[in-house]
Amino acid sequence: MTILAGKRVVLGVCGSVAAFKAAQLCSTLVQAGAEVDVILTRAAREFVTPLTFQSLTRRAVFGDLYGDVAANPSLSSAHVDVGMHADVLVICPATATTIARLAHGLADDMLACTALVSRAPMVVAPAMNVAMWEHPATQANLSTLLARGAAQVGPEFGRLAEGVVGMGRLASLEDVIGATRAALGRGGPLAGRRVVVTAGGTHEPIDPVRFVGNRSSGKMGYALAEAARDAGATVTLVSGPVSLARPWGVTVVPVQTARQMADATLDACDSADLLIMAAAVADYRPEVAADRKLKRTGDALAVTLAPNPDILATVSARFGDRLVKVGFAAETGEVTAEATRKVHAKGAHLICANDVSEVGSGFGTDTNRVTLFGRDGSAEALPMLPKPEVASRIVARAAEVVRAREE
């Protein structure tokens, strides 16, 4: 279950050519379990119709503050009811006009009235012409909203509807969803905490072309970074080479080798409360990396391997129990014995162990089956679950350890 499940989301759609993308956003929110109340501005109805969103949400769609009331008197206080019960307001796409309305506290349409009534966090995803975006009035209005606590997503640089290239494209819907999740998690169990997550494998160069590595996709680590963000934390993600999009609201530090990951992790942990070491770090590296591509000779090639630093053990030695540490044990044999050994040998508070040879639980899969081993000898076996759900459970357990240390 995601943080969106059961939440009341008000989706405000404004009059932009990007308004059609709001339908996909609405569908994604509904599929994640959210209850979505859609408000279309008068201009938005020139681009998209209420029927589209009614079909997606199975709920009434709001728009004309006065016309809707005249047609249905029971909606006379809809802006109050919708605004008061909202968990988050998402304005996507947000036009210059609506941003100005919200910044100046106007109450001349349904969306503006709802925003004035609501005390829920707001996510603003601007989309407009580059000249409108760069105008000092738009920037000042947006700054006002940000000063009040709103979260801004985008815009992005690219080709705009009128054919020019510049800043003004609507942000990716993945980023809008990420910002929405982060807004919902502001008061979560890790609010005010700093969390470091490592993810992916490492590439240890043999020469400029070849490397020693492993099959890690980084999916588990990236899901953990998002789960920590959704729990209210400020998150730094130290990532090896992966083919995954950067999670919104997470600081990503890209690295290639185990030694680079060790340095970046130690630096990030200086001010952290929790480390989740999900990266599949190469245990060995070529002792000497050639500065030119090694040529094929037909003879055997011998590569001498040197041990890489044990990052989790190094962190434990430097920071002790000031920092809560969660490690991973990817095994192919006796999982329990190795996980129990690691939780003590590496100074971890929690080890998440899985058998990567099990179908659905290995590298690159969308699911995982892990057992959480604690210092106290506890072992909590989770069923096979999607990796985001596994991540949420691990973060929840880690948050309990963080809180328990302060009691």
Task: Explain what you see.
- It is a single chain.
- The model has no long low-confidence stretch (mean pLDDT 91).
- With 407 residues, the protein is α/β, with parallel strands linked by helices.
- The chain is 35% helix and 23% strand.
- The protein is built from 14 helices and 22 strands.
- It has two domains: 8-184, Rossmann fold (3-Layer(aba) Sandwich); 194-404, 3-Layer(aba) Sandwich (Rossmann fold).
- It has helices spanning 20-31, 50-57, 67-71, 78-85, 96-104, 110-117, 130-134, 136-147, 173-184, 219-230, 258-269, 311-319, 335-345, 387-404, and strands at 8-13, 35-40, 61-62, 88-94, 122-126, 151-152, 156-159, 165-169, 194-199, 204-205, 211-212, 234-239, 251-254, 274-277, 284-286, 305-307, 324-331, 350-355, 367-368, 371-374, 379-381, 385-386.
- Helix 1 (20-31) runs parallel beside helix 2 (50-57), helix 10 crosses helix 14 (387-404) and helix 11 packs parallel to helix 12 (311-319).
- It is globular and about 75 Å long.
- The strands form six sheets. An eight-stranded mixed β-sheet has the order 13-12-9-14-17-18-20-21, with helices on both faces. The protein has a six-stranded parallel β-sheet with strand order 3-2-1-4-5-6, sandwiched between helices. Strands 7-8 form a two-stranded antiparallel ribbon.
Could you list the spans in which at least 5 consecutive residues all have pLDDT below 50?
none
Give the domain tally. Answer: 2
As laid out across the biggest beta sheet, the strand order is: 13-12-9-14-17-18-20-21
How widely separated are the two ends?
29 Å
